[in-house]
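check this one:
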Amino acid sequence: MAAESEVLKKLPASLSAKFQDSFAYLTIKDRMPVILTKVVDSVHRKKNNLGPEFGEDGAEDLKNIAGHISKLRYEIQTNKPVIPLEDDRSDTIIWNQILEKLTNENDNEPPKWFSSAWLYLECYMYRRLQESVELCKVMKDFDVFEESKNNAYYSSELAIQTLLTNLLVTVDNIETESDKKLSQNLLFQQYLQVSLWGNKCDLSISAGMDNAQTSCILDQLQSLKDNILIDDSSQIWNYINTKKGVHRIDIVLDNAGFELVTDLCLAEFLLSAGLAKSIHFHGKAMPWFVSDVTATDFSWTLKNLSATNNLAMSKFGRLWQDRIEDKSWVLHFDTFWTLPFDFAEMKSEAAELYKELAKADLIIFKGDLNYRKLVGDLKWNTTETFETSLRGFHPAPLVTLRALKSDVVVGLKEGQGEETKEKDQSWMVNGNWAVISFCDKTI
């Protein structure tokens, strides 16, 4: 991570929770306390079913986690000031320096839940959840979202089976297609859209409630096509095909469960079609935003696929484990992804990660949180260009695949936002509309 002096840079002004009609305010007032309540319930269930290997210390740890989270929920609901972290995780000093910086800038008044930058507050809430685990004696590897993530995966198994059966046919036939270039273009756009709409399944947006994919996503692509407000997939395809030797494509992951499987399908197609030689995946270093992918989630998914008696699921589960072994798939889990900085600050706050991303020929950013961090979570005019909104973040040509779940979006045509709002009042936040945005600028 960056040196302390770099961490103390001025944070950008972002969407605030102080306006009572804002999506940010409603998120903090309503959705976040519900998420915390569900986590407490899950912790109590874990405590009642705790294995003997954890003993009394484990039970006491879980009791303390539940108490810690209940206290956090009370702080949010009563608009208490944000407080420093007390665990010894490596990023604690950075979080506390940011808090000190914000406090100093506000006449020595620390941030409060209903009057401070939304992106910072959301990230801080999830970091406080991890703090409750970091302070444990024996439950330091406990994922407070494990139950909800696993349930979401199991609820989506039929849709996963259908998708992977289709992928198996695609991979088997890809070399025998008579018009390979045209076929690959159509399949590329199909799997790009599969990965895009996999992003509809987000447990943080549904406040931790069940949010599984229960139908075949391939059957929905045509009906969803008009809901893609920006579709740069043709430009992406042309870039991949005109660039001599696309060796590496990076995917910055979002949610576990069904969405992760859609991302793995896209990655497999890219390799099988010869459009990339290696795929680098970037996930979270700790449980984050309920359903974001951690190293444990990635491994758990491949093991579960491998263990099924469905041919396609078990075949890809084993193949993808082999891909990690032969390094055609590479996994990264950097702490920067779970800090409140937006990506324009990466070059100074996480220089090594920026250099790593710069090795890619193309970076695919998944989901709403990554989008918000790409554009700084700022109140942009919807017609502002995507390139401008990146504010100098150009490690490599990049794509964002995002279902809209917060009230910030750029790159729309004049009047497009107003037309969409006439069709759907909640178009910016309900996940039913999406963008595939591409920027090929590099610095």
Observations:
- The first helix runs from residue 4 to 7.
- DSSP finds 18 helices and seven strands in the chain.
